[in-house]
Structure formats: structure tokens, C-alpha cells
Amino acid sequence: MSMDWNSGVWPDWCPGCGNFGIFTAVKGALSELGISREKMVLVSGIGCSGKIPHFVKVPGVHTLHGRAIPFATGIKASNPDLKVIVHGGDGDLLGIGMGHLIAMGRRNPEILVVVHNNGVYGLTKGQASPTLQLGKKTKSLAFPNINSAVNPILLGIASGYTFLARSYAYNIDHLKSCLKQGISHSGAGILEVIQPCPTWNNIVTMDWVEKNTYYLKDWDPVVKDDEDAVKKAQGIIGIESGEKKALGTILIDRRKDPFGKRLASIYKHYAAEPPATQQLEKGGAPLPIDLEKTFQKFYIH
Amino acid sequence: MDLNLIVGGPQGGGIETAGMLAVRALAMHGLEVFADREYHSNIKGKHSYSHIRASYRPINSIKYPVDFVGALDIETIATHYKDLGPGGVLIHDASLLDKTLTKLPPMEKKRLERLKAELEREKIGNTVKELDEWLEKNGRTVLPFPFLGMITEKAKLASPMIEKAMNTAMTTALLRGAGMPLDTILEAIDSLFMEKAEARELNRAVAAAVSDGFDEIAGTKGIGKKGTVGKGPARGKRMLVAGNDAVAIGKLIGGLRLQTYYPITPAADESFVIEQHSNLFGPEGEIVGSPIVIQAEDEISAICMAIGGALTGARAATCTSGPGFSLMVEGIGWAGINEVPVVITYYQRGGPSTGLPTRHSQSDLLFAINSGHGEFQRIVLASGSHEETLDDAVKCMDYAERYQVPVIHLLDKGIANCVTTINPPTLRRIDRGKRILKGVLEYRRFAFDSDPVSPRAFLGEELMWYTGDEHDESGHISEDPENRRRMYEKRMSKMEKILKEAPDGDKAVLFGDDNFEDLLVTWGVTTGAAVDALPELQAAGSKLAVLQVRMIEPFPVDIVSKYVSKAKRVIGLEANYIGQLAELIGWKTGVKVKNRILKYTGRLITQDEVVSAYMRIKGGEERVVLTGGE
């Protein structure tokens, strides 16, 4: 089954790279979701994570550094029938592309953003990424990191995301289940994936992950009402303030309309015919636009 | 008949409405109109004005000196009294008479110093009254109107409505002064305030009140009696548009379905207009098309969203000016390597950096054609008039899809904000370019063929990959040298295809007689001033023609060479410092453009400036730098 989802392009990640786990989980999730191949789009940024669309046999758009979200937003808004998934690294999405990550939360499009979090800029030889903890020194750094780390889950809450989860690249079943949940969610989602980089990050190793993460139990991520939303937010701050990283589904908030619905509320024609599917001619002739009616105020009689 | 008038006042004080009312009334009177709007990067308080020109023949420029100045404040009087030609008329509120001319907090200090020196040098005095006397002595007429009294007594308005009505009072006085009947002014008010009943009634009452008292004040001085503004000849339907409107209308006719933007002057109005007209109505009132507009978080996002939309098959575009375009450059490169049809409407303004945010410039020609690292084919099309702008906005959408390249529609603040009368557009066929045939096995988005343009499938239709890296026919990353060479050549060879297929009229246009000796080469809104100046210069015995270059990239070497190589003297005319088009012509054709007429003050090049600068070039000057306009 999973083989059928290989594009045939050789994955050129380092041996032992966490991306292999993510790759396997993505193929599994896509095959199990039962969506026709052509109706999916993997949109990625730049870096090791950015290459993933080339390896999966679904349409792929490998974009610019930090800009996968705007590309994905344009794709989803123009053709809401497509299932759009963004892949990017922590440097890509939380560094150069941070503004877009926040803007996406505000819009709440039905797009899942998968943050491949390995704590370093791998493809450029291991510089500190925005998620590397203050004072840590990975092997290619000359000095310990002098910047504090950003937390994508808390950022997601602040920005209005309606799905938040964290998983681990080497727990493929857990990751696959989070992916399926996130892809099926009708709103903007962040799925942070802790991903060891065996080449450059000598801190976040498999052993470190064993010792510094735990799976959420007895946590109901689903927001019930406005009052519950406040409680959830406080609870999440509590979870994220712990010494260990929580793995699991952290938030599902179905109260907010996704971007498509918001567009449909102002563009009455949008739901019936979104931009990508509108015919621009009719029967070999221009659309019969009544120019004088449409552009009435510009006419002088 | 060639009427030029200026109406000015503090920004936010209804000056734009005053200008629009005058423009609309003149257009409804059957005249051709061209109006420039000048304003500061400020919301309230600083000086702004409209320079409105009307004529029986089509015009695409403004001209000094002016016949009327309508001043809603002292700063307008102090700034524009010099713009009045012999016989010119200044209208201001009578309450300003005793005011001091130089107490102008909003005016920049250096400008104020220049004003003081000017008043001293000409021994004018320091009050509005003294200036009025000086003007009358020098063959101008001043009409101080008691607008306040007219509005409160005759139109029975009370504060705070009075202030809101001052602009209409002034416009009415100006138009009556120019000989226009009240009826036309009232019709223009009805039309301008079509959807606002309360404002309509208020403005009608004000116009009637001012018109009522007009002859009592102006008649004694013989103003407004003769009827300067005769009714224009009967015409078909026309439109009154700013360049932003023209682009919006053109894009909508051209099948735009996704517009993205980040707010920036002077581009943002275009997206407002698209939003306001997002229901395209059919003959039965049904919706036959509907674009969406997304306000992005920045220009990087705007271009990337538009590209994303284009990949799904939506006709997609964005619009911006220099600072925003700078941010879009990386995205445009991605569209270049991925052969994405996306349209960027680029309104130039004064740079570099934030520069002159609300002022005119043509200094981004070389940036538009060279922006982005690496080499890729694009189309840069520059429009010279509003009618052409609308037409080109339609064409750009077709060009993008026909050749699968990013298309930059290069405009300027002059086009964006000037308002003018145009002939209405017509509907036309849409060319979506090469599409895949149904049931293709193993679709390859960038398939090699003798034609550099590969059949296009949209996301959602077939398996395909895109990447900003060099890629193979399927769209996967490839660093293979043989593939690199072929893919590179596939993209770059579109240049020959575009130049071969594009009509001459899209490349360059010659105005004037073919047996010219001198050739003015120009582009963008400056074309209007050059073409408008042509009859006057030809009548004075100059063997002169104007060449407007429209396609800047790929550069139409053949057609431009043909004209520049046979001219005895080639003169570059454009609103920048180095003469960017002139430089490009030298580079592309080998013909050095020795003479340059340039302007970089942020104000439009006017018809009279073209005339005087050309005479100076004839007199032996090599480079003329223009400085007119406030």
C-alpha cells in the first residue's frame, strides 16, 4: 500500500533522519484517508523538510523559504476541493516565515501545517533554529545559543489556530493518527513533529526524546464553549510550561468558521463556483457581462 | 477651448470630492477631462489639490498656466497664485481677506521661507488682501465669495454641515465662473451622490445657493458671463475613471478570479474597486462571474497567494508599488522558473525606499525588467493612457496564460490617480493558452517540445510537481547539466515566441508624421504630455514625432531600432534621473539617446513643460531637468 505512494524519486535525507518517519506516516495517513490522489496538494518550504512533496505520489508544490503558507492559502482559497497540507521546518515556519504562520491562524483555512522541528538549520550545516533552547550548544555552534526558543503550540493558541497537536517522528502510528486528525479538521492546524537530526543536533537525540516527552492522558482537547475555551487555553499554558514536552492532540476548536466559509459569507457566488472552477467563457464567446450594470458608477451619459 | 483649473485645500477637507464633482460636471457637459490629484502622505491637514483640465479633444496631460484657482484655505492661495495665467481668476472665501499669508503651520519650513522671499521680492505684502490687490494689478481677477453666508442663509445649513459643504460651494463658483450652467452642476451632484440621498440634497442646496449669489459677485467683473465652457459635441457613452479603476475593470473583463494585495499607495484603490464589483452581472441580472479579493499580511504573501491561485487555474493577480514590489521579487522568480501565469500591476511612485509615497515617478523601469536573481522570461507592458491601461489590463491576463510567464503591468502614480474620460470597453474572447488534452498518460508539466510552452494542467487535475529548484519535465528537482541546459533554453526561448507573435501596437506606437527629424521617446503617463504637445510643436515648424515604447520586456528591438536609427536627434522624455528607457534603447539598439528631458520632483510632466524643454534641446541643451508643479 505504502509503496504505491512513493513518487519514485529517491529520498536524499541523511540515514537516520526523522524525515523518514514523517514520510512513512504521511503516506500512511494519505492512503487511509481515501481521498483521490489528484485532490491533494503537499506544499512545502525550503530545507530538508521542503523536499518531502517530491517523494510522495501526490501533487506537490515546493515553494520558497518560509512562504509555503501563502502559496497554500492561495491554492485552498481558489479551489476548496483540494486537501492542502503544508510541510516546513522550524527555521522555515517559525523563523523566516513566522508572519505567515500567525496570519494563517487568523484566517483559519482548512490547512494542516506540519512543523518538522529538529532545532537546527540542517541543510546549511546546523545553525540554531528558533526552537533551540537558550544556552544550548549543538555541535556546529561556536557558542551556546543566546536566543530563547519559541513554542509553536503557544503561538498557535495566540494566533487563533483551531487544531494543535504534537507528535514524534519515530512514533509512526501516533504521528499518522495526528496527521489524519489534522487533515480532517475543518480549520487551521499546527502539528509539531519532534524530529531528531542525527547529523547536526546532538542534543535532541532519540534518547533525549525518550526522557523528555510524555503522551497526554486524560486531556480532552475539544473546546465545548466560550467558557471552556478559556479553561483550555489556561490548561495548555500549564501543559506547555512543564519540563517535558507533551505529545498528543492538544486542541480541537470547532466553533470558528474556516476561511472558506468566511469568504462565502461575503462572496455569494463563492460556494457554488470558487475561482479555480469558474468558466471564463461560455459557448466559445465571452461571458455575457453587462458592463453598464456591473460598472454603473463609472459611466457618463 | 482648453480649460485648466486648480482646486485646493487641506487634506481631508473634501478636496477630493470637490475635484471629482468638477471633473464629473465637465465630463457630463460633453468635454474630455484629465485631472491630476496631488496629495501628501497624510490623512488630514496638509495641502492637497486637483489640477483639472477640460477640452473638446481628447487630452492625456495637464497644462500650465491655469485659468482658475479655487482656494479653500490660505495655503492654497499662497501655493498656487503664481499658477494663474493672464486673465486668470482666483476664488476664495471672503473671510480669508484679512488673514496673514505666511502663518501656515502645515507648510514645510523651507517652502515657507521661499514663499516669504517671493512675497518680499515682488513687494506683494503679507495678507491675502494685499496679494489679491497685487493679482488684480497684474491682470488677474480675484473673487472673494462670502460662502459662509451663502450656505447658512440661502441653503439654511447649520454647523457642522457647513464645513462639509464648503467644497461644493467652491466647485460651484469655479464651474459657474467657467461658464457652466447650474443645471449641469446639479446633474453632476446627482450622479456623484447617486447612493447617498442626504448628501445629495445638501450639496444641491449649496450649489443652488452659491449659483444664486454668483452674478452679484462675479458679474461685475465679467466672469462667467461669456460662457468659457461651451457644451461639448454629442458623444456616445463614456466612462470616467482613475487608473486604479481602469485596471480593476480591465482585470475583471480579462477573467480575474483571485486578486491579492497588501495596502500600499497608490495601488490599494484598485483592490477596493475589484471588491466593490466582485459580482459580474449578466443581462438578466444573474451573476456570471465572481472574483475574490484577499488582503494578505504582506506583499510576499500577496504574490505567493496569487501564484498558488494560478496553479489551481484561477486567473490570479496582485498589485503594488515600489516598496511592495521589492518584497515580491523572490516570488516572481519562483513564478519565472515554474512558468506560472500571474499578473503584477506595478504602480511606480517616488523612490528609493519609502521615497515620495504619494507622488509620481517612472524610476522603476530597469527594476521591473531586471528584478530577481537568475534569468527568466517575463513580460513587462507599460501603458500610456487610461484607455490603454484598461485594455492592457485585459491583455496582461491573456499574455500570462498564453506564454506561462509572470506579467508585470508597469504603470505609475500619474496613471493610478489621474482621472479621465475614456471610451467604454467591450467584451472580448479569453485566451487561456495551451491546456492538457483529456486522458493524458503520465502528465509532465514541463514536457519538452518544439514549443517552449507546455500544455498546462491545473492542480486538482493531474499529478504534477513544482519547485523553485531547477527541475525535470515532471517538476522534480534536477541538477543534471543536460536537463538544466534544455529547461533553461525552454524558458528563455519564449522571448522569440512573444516578440514574433505580439502585435506591433503592443510593442511601440509612433505618434506624428513618419518623416520626422526629431524623435521624442517616452513611455507611461508622460506619453500623454508628449502627444498633447505635438500639434503645437509641429505648428511651430518642428519635424517631430513621439515614439511611445509599450513593451519593455521582451524589448521590441526591431520596431524601436527602425524609428530611432532614422531620427536625426533622439530625445528621451521620462520622469526619472538617468533616463532609464533612453539607457535601455542605447543598450538594445546601439543608438545612443543623447538628449534627455527628465523630471524627478514627484510631479507630472506637463504639456507646456514638454514644449519649453524641447525648444531648449533645439537650442543646444543636451539635458533638461524639469521642476514644475507644487
Written overview of the protein:
The complex is a heterodimer of chains A (about 300) and B (about 625). With about 300 residues, chain A is α/β, with parallel strands linked by helices. Chain A is built from eleven helices and 13 strands. Chain A has helices at about 20-35, 50-55, 70-80, 90-95, 100-105, 150-160, 170-185, 205-210, 225-240, 260-265, 290-295; strands spanning about 40-45, 60, 85-90, 110-115, 120, 125-130, 165-170, 190-195, 215, 245-250, 280, 285, 300. In chain A, strand 11 and strand 12 form a beta hairpin. In chain A, helix 1 (about 20-35) packs across helix 7, helix 4 crosses helix 5 and helix 5 packs across helix 6. The longest helix of chain A is centred in the first third of the chain and has 16 residues, at about 20-35. Chain A starts with 17 loop residues before the first helix and ends with a strand. In chain B, helix 21 (about 580-590) links the parallel strand 22 and strand 23 (about 595-600). In chain B, the strands form four sheets. An eight-stranded mixed β-sheet of chain B has the order 6-5-4-1-3-2-16-7, with helices on both faces. In chain B, strands 11-8-12-13-15-14-21 form a seven-stranded mixed β-sheet, sandwiched between helices. The chains are: A alpha/beta (about 300), B alpha/beta (about 625). The interface between A and B is large, with 67 and 79 residues.
Structural class of chain B: alpha/beta
Which overall shape of chain A is indicated by the principal axes computed on the Cα atoms? Answer: globular
Radius of gyration of chain B: 26 Å
Oligomer: heterodimer
Query: Reading side by side through the largest sheet of chain B, how are the strands ordered?
Result: 6-5-4-1-3-2-16-7
Poorly predicted runs of chain B: none
How many helical elements of chain A?
Answer: 11
Q: Can you write the helix and strand succession of chain A as a string? A: HEHEHEHHEEEHEHEHEHEHEEHE
What gross morphology of chain B would you assign?
Answer: globular
Which percent bin holds the helix content of chain A? 25-40%
Instruction: Please report the two chains with the greatest interface, counting residues with C-beta closer than 8 angstroms to the partner's C-beta.
Output: A-B, 67 and 79 residues
